[in-house]
């Protein structure tokens, strides 16, 4: 029992001026005890002879703080300090990761959670969420045919918190939550990160980000996520609907080909669609003043930002608040018209490109006669190839349509919906909250930069060449809560990531290899199955090694302060 509780728990006991300590390396512990037996004798003897007669400290190979607290009550511990005339000083050793990482060390495996939503992918559709969930046997995940698996959650969010797999079989099916463990061992997060994101409330081990894998089989709702101020208000007014008081900017990185709505189309495009698509025009039903304004937009070389916001809001509000019967009739009519033209080989006669017409048909098949179908003429359609990314600010409309992605966001689960969903809609809140900024679809894509490795990395030379050849790329959105590193290592290639000053979560999405913390050999993990997830403590350099014939691909979400 003593050994299990001791591993990784590095403490020093100061009693009567003497020190007795344990490290997370059992071999070092034994060597230290042999070299200075009198100190162990002093503490152990004090406990057994004065406080608890009959207790033999030598029955426990290691004396840890956790064991001390478990074996002796507070009154007995006070008695120890009284007898020695000194405070029993239980303090964390300083400096390296090996001395402040708790009993599981600076790196350990996590059990992610799985969410099943209607828009997810089934086993037959090749859901990566389901495949990745199976990689962790401790999750006891059992696949069900026909069930859509939508999201794999990695983090500390209370809705679906990750748990820890104790190394070396410790714990015997007891899996502490990551949040509770970080609260007990905050050095894994780092003082600066904790101070920056804990706020004025008592910190309970929460990470400022939530990391996910999404398998998208059909469109998600037309939605936006509130900024901090609105999140606090919505949470106060409707706590059951909006469970968090935090904002939720998010970033999507494609694992497969991806399609989604992201932000408003340029106003000129929207004005053009109102003019040429009769069903869309009938729903917007522009009055003479709006018609005049849109005519000026089409001919203008530039448009004032304030005027753009005003017109976008007017158009979007008209769409979202249109009479339901008119929406149903118009959506049904346009979908039938487009489908008839495509099936008869006359797509070229349509007023819009064939891809857009097919999207309207697809969305109507998924959500018949829904107002969200007409958002195809208002919102940008963004396509991403694997490795490409898009960032979505708070208060920006979007909807994922198809594909599989890595997603990272500020730790919140607030969603304001208004279309393409069977869930509760909050149309007026959505209309009021949006920023109404327009831009071309290609401006929504992020440009990752090389993430330079530790100087000792075996592949450091690759970062002196073209950035396109960099094995690790950094996706760094303009917010504080998170960044993501994508690493692609070819067969037998290795890379040592620099020590990051905050916590991180890493998932393997392809290939085989190993993950090692640069502390001791006891912190090496065999990465034999895509889907395995690991937590890496603050200030811990790690080495990734590819051992399979296919590239090893990992994604690592982190925060620094």
TrEMBL record:
Biased composition range(s): Polar residues: 454-470
PROSITE patterns: PMI_I_1 (PS00965), PMI_I_2 (PS00966)
Domain named Phosphomannose isomerase type I catalytic: residues: 107-267
EC numbers, comma separated: 5.3.1.8
The protein's enzyme class: isomerase
Annotated region described as Disordered, given as residue ranges: 438-470
Annotated cofactor note: Binds 1 zinc ion per subunit.
Organism domain of life: Eukaryota
Domain DUF985 stretches: 1-62
UniProt keywords, alphabetically: Isomerase, Metal-binding, Zinc
Functional pathway: Nucleotide-sugar biosynthesis; GDP-alpha-D-mannose biosynthesis; alpha-D-mannose 1-phosphate from D-fructose 6-phosphate: step 1/2
Catalyzed reactions per annotation: D-mannose 6-phosphate = D-fructose 6-phosphate
Phosphomannose isomerase type I C-terminal domain location: 472-517
Keyword Zinc: yes
Record-level GO cellular component terms: cytosol
InterPro entries, alphabetized: Cupin_DUF985, Man6P_Isoase-1, Mannose-6-P_Isomerase, Pmannose_isomerase-type1_CS, PMI_typeI_C, PMI_typeI_cat, PMI_typeI_hel, RmlC-like_jellyroll
Protein family per UniProt: Belongs to the mannose-6-phosphate isomerase type 1 family.
Job description of the protein: Involved in the synthesis of the GDP-mannose and dolichol-phosphate-mannose required for a number of critical mannosyl transfer reactions.
Protein name listed in UniProt: Mannose-6-phosphate isomerase
